[in-house]
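Provenance and format

Records in this collection were gathered into a single text stream. Each protein contributes a sequence line and a token line. The two records reproduced below are adjacent in the stream.
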Amino acid sequence: MSSATYRGSLTVGALIASVLLSAAGCDDPIQAGAGRPTPAPGVAVPNPGATPPPPAGEPVDEAVTPDAGTPPRVYADEEFVEIDIQQRDPFRRFDIEVVAMPTVQSIMSDTSIDEMRILGIVTGGSGARAMIADRGGVGHTVRARQYIGRPETVQVGGADGIAIPLVWRVDRIRTNEVILTRENPSAPDQPPLTRTLTLRGEDQMLLMNLGSVAPIEGETATPVIPSIPSGG
């Protein structure tokens, strides 16, 4: 090999080594292909991980408070009161229980107590009994614990209450009177109401016809005829 060829090889080798050293000392990595364009001086480069600025024209809240979460709910006492329109108990039963009043067999059911007259009373034998005439003059035999007379309607519970028919019951039969009793639904804890039918003798009937004795409430001045047939 000649000296000129040897010197040419050294020159080429030195040039290649110089290029490699320059590439190794560069801060930017070597990229293959087209690289990212270099921004112009004075232009800010956006950071992909940074929060974008608010749009133009909107106010910027300088003091942003962190989210404290949902505040606890406070319940008032009124919320636990059941309202028929807004809140209804799905388990409530709205069935209305109708209690039928017991029916009793009443003697002289078309005659009031004021229209009755005692024709006679028997206290011996199988038990005390009385002969009572209805408003038509027909006699009926009654005994203790029997119901007599026309039912009387009593309003229970005020103006919005219910009407209950009540019948007088023969409680006791004495020598000259018949004691009647009836329950008082407006005061169930009180004793029952009491009425008395009195037997008038022949002398009292005579005095009543003459106007000396006032008739009993419901009685007339007509004397009782002993031969009135019994309807009981």
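Adjacent record:
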Amino acid sequence: MTILIILLYKLIGTKTTEIGRLIQENKILNEKKSVAPFIECVYKKSREYSTVSCGEDDDSYAFISRFHESVSTNFRCVDRVDVLPCLSTDNVLLFNHTRLEKFPQCAGLNNIRLKNSITQSTPIVAPSINITEYQGKILRPKDFLVKCPKCAIKSFFGWRDTDDAEDRRCARELKTYSLGWPQHARFCDEEDMHDEPDFCRLHDLLLEKLGGGMEESNELNFVNSADEKKPLREQMQLP
């Protein structure tokens, strides 16, 4: 009988403690309703955090993310995304490697001339650092490799205006046909400079004499690079 009383006392004590904790939590939640707009919203079961950005974006812009889809009828309950940085500031500095200025294998990227109308369809992977300087150190794939973007010529050579009216460049427009990897190699250059500025002067003279014009080539489906500087997590179309 004594043992039964002790067990009941412990059980009741545990329940009392749990009820007290719940009452305290409810009190806190009620106090935060005015500053927590999602507190009364109902969402579908959350997926696991996505770590795609961690392996592709520059560390300063790399985040893990999780999408929450609202199932509430309240119009104030919108879908939401939770984001957390992949690395702390200190760890970002640990992976601050010096990249090569150019990747000769990647035509159309970092001022490497594009000799054909479009780069080859076969995926091209190139080193992005001088690997001999980092022997014995821990590196991630995005630290020492790039996958070249596929670049295509979208216009003929012509004058490209700048903020300085007297500083015109003889160049043609490039577009990204397929994204590269990681973030710093994701998009092709915006333009391809001609080796001889006089080419555009001759081109203008011929057009004037012939009285014609040349239209840009837009037969390919290009990737929109309007948000070229944004990290991947901002470019993803979340479900």
